[in-house]
């Protein structure tokens, strides 16, 4: 299908990413209302979105499945080693032998951590080979999904294909694109391409609106969650949602159901995922996953809160700015309201799926360094309504009130010490690879299961036992809680404003002293003296 390019007029879908969010007509997903669109392939998208497509082609998403016949350099493994690990008996062969590079039809995975391989059984049937290449350690290791290679556990279509391809048709055993390409996140693109071609180089405002609405551009975490999750598709019992399309509802009984929190095969007792690619599961139970609703439930909710409470706000602002600079035609969107916001802190609040890795080297497509991302919201800087969430100020030891001298936090003062993600995205080891948890709460020893390798505190404080660290944490938090309660009960109508500010700051920080024990203790001592609770 031929498409007419007019990218100087239209920026949509994958056409332009700024501020970490795809540009489109609105911050919410839009499902097709006319005849269902069909997949046209990433090459078709690239005829107009050339620059974006070129950058995406180098991403881990795009490289998650590569056909060896098209890319001879895709195999990084050393086939001069690992003969025992690679041993397999192929169909129509009677004796086992190590599989070779010639047996590999596709490479599965970008190779950042591991490479796995597909064997073509026949024209439309593939099986995962029973060994994988560890890219970091440069060695082979068994890829054991079952006792026998003939097991259904090694069946490609039944276990993996939905999240390593775009436009999968299981009935035909065919897919449009290898890897996670444009239409995996923006939806089938035939209608979009046809409308753009029909409109030509001078589309009317009405045509622009329809063209932009013909693809999904959204901050919705469900778009990422279709693959970054563990669950079940009900019709065929697949571990991926076969019939989900961006703009639709993922978590529907007819589409996909996440594994339950009580499923010990998938969750540690600490509430962390046991399997990789469960980020959506973890996010769903996190404060991030529910923060927009908590805002809407608040009597103090205001549109200014959306900067940190809604990824839709970021997208909306990008659209408005692109109109102001003349980069985008048509009518700009109206400022977002709390009522109109649909999505809270989602994946694209921190990750840019279109990050150009040729020029920007942030890991995991992050918009900034992890800690700067966290404190861009977990701070009172820019908040004009009094004290709200001064995590940064407490942790770093910034002045809260003039009456109390700020004290630098120990973690903040040591360069190698963990900051935000070191404690709140506890590393969980899965298949010898460490993954950061997206539950976002710190793990303390009383919660953790013995199977997990390290906990938040004793991962660094190795000379202390988990029990000792548990006692240390609980002692600080219990004392802080008691002191807060006593001070709040002692407040009088004429108590100084700075006293109320300090109490609000300690409470708003949320760690009950753990972020900076010395500073919190000093703040509470000053309050207690002012209230006559100590000499």
Distance between the termini: 82 Å
CATH architectural type of one domain: Up-down Bundle
What's the total number of strands? 16
Helix/strand/pairing class, anyone?
Answer: alpha+beta
Q: Outline the biggest β-sheet.
A: 6 strands, antiparallel
Unreliable stretches: 1-32, 449-453
Percent of sequence in beta strands: 5-15%
Q: How helical, in percent, are the residues? A: 25-40%
CATH topology value of one domain: Butyryl-CoA Dehydrogenase, subunit A, domain 3
CATH top level of one domain?
Mainly Alpha
Question: What gyration radius follows from the Cα positions, in whole Å?
Answer: 26 Å
Shape: globular
The whole-number mean of residue pLDDT values reads: 89
Number of helical segments?
Answer: 20
What characteristics describe this protein?
alpha+beta; disordered N terminus; two-stranded antiparallel sheet; 535 residues; 20 helices; 6-stranded antiparallel beta sheet; Butyryl-CoA Dehydrogenase, subunit A, domain 3; 30% helix; globular
Task: Describe this protein's structure.
It is a single chain. With 535 residues, the protein is of the alpha+beta class. Among the domains are: 62-163, no CATH class; 410-530, Butyryl-CoA Dehydrogenase, subunit A, domain 3. 30% of the residues lie in helices and 11% in strands. The strands form 6 sheets. Strands 3, 6, 7, 8, 9 and 10 form a 6-stranded antiparallel sheet that branches. Helix 6 (190-199) packs antiparallel against helix 7, helix 18 runs parallel beside helix 20 and helix 19 (497-509) packs antiparallel against helix 20. The longest helix is centred in the C-terminal third of the chain and has 25 residues, at 466-490. The chain is globular. It starts with 16 loop residues before the first strand and ends in a 5-residue tail after the last helix. Mean pLDDT is 89; it is low at 1-32 and 449-453.
């Amino acid at each position: 299908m031929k498409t007419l390019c007019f990218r100087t007029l239209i920026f949509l879908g994958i056409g332009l990413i700024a501020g970490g969010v795809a540009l489109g007509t609105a911050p919410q997903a839009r499902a097709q209302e006319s005849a269902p669109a069909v997949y046209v392939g990433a090459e078709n998208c690239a005829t107009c979105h050339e620059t974006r497509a070129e950058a995406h082609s180098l991403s881990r998403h795009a490289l998650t499945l590569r056909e060896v016949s098209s890319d001879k350099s895709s195999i990084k493994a050393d086939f001069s080693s690992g003969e025992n690990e690679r041993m397999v008996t192929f169909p129509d062969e009677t004796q086992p032998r190590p599989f070779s590079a010639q047996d590999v039809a596709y490479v599965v995975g970008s190779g950042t951590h591991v490479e796995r391989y597909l064997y073509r059984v026949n024209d439309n049937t593939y099986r995962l080979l029973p060994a994988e290449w560890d890219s970091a350690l440069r060695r082979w290791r068994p890829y054991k999904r079952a006792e026998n290679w003939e097991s259904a556990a090694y069946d490609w279509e039944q276990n993996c294909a939905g999240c390593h391809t775009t436009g999968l048709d299981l009935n035909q055993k065919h897919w449009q694109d290898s890897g996670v390409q444009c239409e995996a996140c923006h939806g089938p693109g035939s209608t979009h391409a046809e409308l753009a071609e029909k409109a030509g180089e001078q589309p009317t405002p009405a045509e622009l609106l329809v063209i932009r609405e013909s693809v999904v551009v959204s901050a919705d975490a469900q778009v990422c969650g279709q693959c970054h999750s563990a669950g079940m598709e009900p019709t065929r019992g697949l571990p991926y949602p076969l019939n989900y399309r961006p703009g639709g509802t993922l978590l529907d009984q007819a589409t996909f159901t996440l594994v339950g929190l009580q499923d010990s095969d998938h969750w540690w007792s600490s509430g962390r995922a046991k399997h990789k690619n469960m980020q959506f599961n973890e996010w769903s139970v996190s404060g991030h996953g529910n923060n927009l609703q908590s805002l809407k439930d608040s009597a103090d909710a205001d549109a200014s809160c959306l900067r940190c409470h809604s990824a839709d706000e970021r997208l909306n602002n990008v659209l408005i700015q692109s109109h102001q600079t003349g980069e985008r035609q048509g009518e700009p969107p109206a400022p977002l309201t709390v009522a109109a916001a649909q999505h809270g802190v989602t994946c694209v609040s921190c990750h840019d799926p279109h990050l150009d890795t040729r020029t920007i080297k942030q890991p995991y497509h992050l918009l900034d360094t992890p800690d700067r991302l966290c404190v861009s919201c977990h701070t009172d800087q820019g908040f004009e309504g009094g004290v709200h969430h001064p995590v940064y100020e407490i942790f770093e030891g910034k002045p809260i009130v003039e009456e109390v001298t700020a004290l630098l936090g120990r973690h903040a003062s040591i360069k190698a010490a963990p900051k935000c993600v070191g404690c709140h995205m506890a590393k969980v080891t899965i298949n010898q690879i460490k993954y950061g948890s997206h539950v976002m709460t710190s793990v303390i020893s009383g919660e953790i299961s013995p199977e997990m390798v390290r906990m938040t505190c004793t991962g660094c404080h190795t000379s202390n036992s988990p029990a000792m660290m548990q006692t240390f944490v609980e002692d600080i938090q219990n004392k802080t809680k008691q002191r807060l309660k006593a001070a709040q009960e002692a407040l009088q109508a004429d108590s100084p404003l700075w006293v109320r500010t300090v109490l609000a700051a300690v409470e708003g920080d949320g760690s009950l002293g753990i972020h900076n024990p010395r500073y919190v203790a000093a703040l509470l001592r000053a309050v207690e003296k002012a209230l006559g609770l100590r000499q």
